[in-house]
Amino acid sequence: MIEIHNIHKTFNGNKVLDGISGNFESGKMNMLLGASGTGKSVLLKCIVGLVKPDIGSITYDGRIFANNKLDIKQEIRRKIGMLFQGSALFDSMTVNENVEFPLKMLTDMDRQERQERVEFCLKRVGLEKAGNKMPSELSGGMKKRVGIARAIAPHCTYLFCDEPNSGLDPLTAITIDELIKEITEEYNITTIVVTHDMNSVLEYGDNVMFLYKGKKLWEGHSSTIMDTHVKELNDFIFSNRLMRDAKKVEEIAEEERQEEGQRQEDDKNRNR
Ligand SMILES: Nc1ncnc2c1ncn2[C@@H]1O[C@H](COP(=O)(O)OP(=O)(O)OP(=O)(O)O)[C@@H](O)[C@H]1O
Ligand SMILES: [Mg+2]
């Protein structure tokens, strides 16, 4: 489990994170949801140690991460897999070399072990035949898969995905979400997914945190998100026409259920 407490971050007088706390459990799809510019990526970068928070604590399975000794930080870092916003593959390397890269950097595996691990990870994301391709030859969805294979290659315990399905068509987006969920559950990884995609949230969000202007305004399971009374979250969810229509259909169905219940009650009373 990752725990964050009271995280603050200001860039040149611009307060981006304003006291965010929360827990991210292992084996669950933890999601950070929010509009563009609201601080999701900065929070994720604070959690992985790419940005230093001004105030606040971060612990990985009880071990303090931020501001700790370098060797403890490095040990935790070795267990972190990261899928960056936009995949961030190395353009001049083949798919095999991209996935092998963190193994060379972070492990003492020999060449043979590295090759086997690369093969295993590419197979796990359904790309066993793409090892010799260059990133420029891949579709957007394939690039994300390679990014996921590279992230999990060093047996990660913690997986961070920044907008894993942005720029993908809805069907491919679902397969990427599904893959992340399967891997999270299979290896009991502590996964944090940053997104502004309500489809992903509704389908896969075990624990969703809604960020708004650097604050956490709501947290809960995705199944309860449609019933929220937080205005900013409601505005965010129902900014989309499809979601508004879905809500209307749900309200009509609820009214019909209540009317039917009342009818049955009346019938019972009449027959007494
Ligand atoms: N290194 C930095 N220096 C200065 N300002 C930064 C830096 N990184 C982020 N910011 C600012 O922090 C704010 C939040 O940025 P962030 O990238 O976290 O947004 P986001 O919620 O991830 O948005 P998006 O959905 O568009 O990716 C923005 O105003 C951004 O300009
Ligand atoms: Mg971002």
| Overall 3D form | globular
Major sheet strand order: 6-7-8-3-9-10
Q: Find the count of extended strands (DSSP E, 2+ residues).
A: 10
- Supply the CATH superfamily name of the largest domain: P-loop containing nucleotide triphosphate hydrolases
Describe the main β-sheet briefly: 6 strands, mixed
Q: What average pLDDT do the residues reach?
A: 89
What is Rg? 22 Å
| CATH fold field value of the largest domain | Rossmann fold
Count of domain modules = 2
**Overall CATH architecture of the largest domain:** 3-Layer(aba) Sandwich
The small molecules bound here are:
adenosine-5'-triphosphate, magnesium ion
Classification by helices and strands? alpha/beta
| Helix-residue proportion | 40-55%
How many separate helices?
9
Which range does the strand content fall in?
A: 15-25%
The helix/strand series, from N terminus to C terminus, equals: EEEHEEHEHHHEHEHEEHH
Task: Quickly name the level 1 CATH class of the largest domain.
Answer: Alpha Beta
Uncertain parts: none
End-to-end Cα distance, whole Å, is 57 Å
Protein name: ABC transporter ATP-binding protein
Biased composition (Basic and acidic residues): 259-272
Pfam families: ABC_tran
GO molecular function: ATP binding; ATP hydrolysis activity
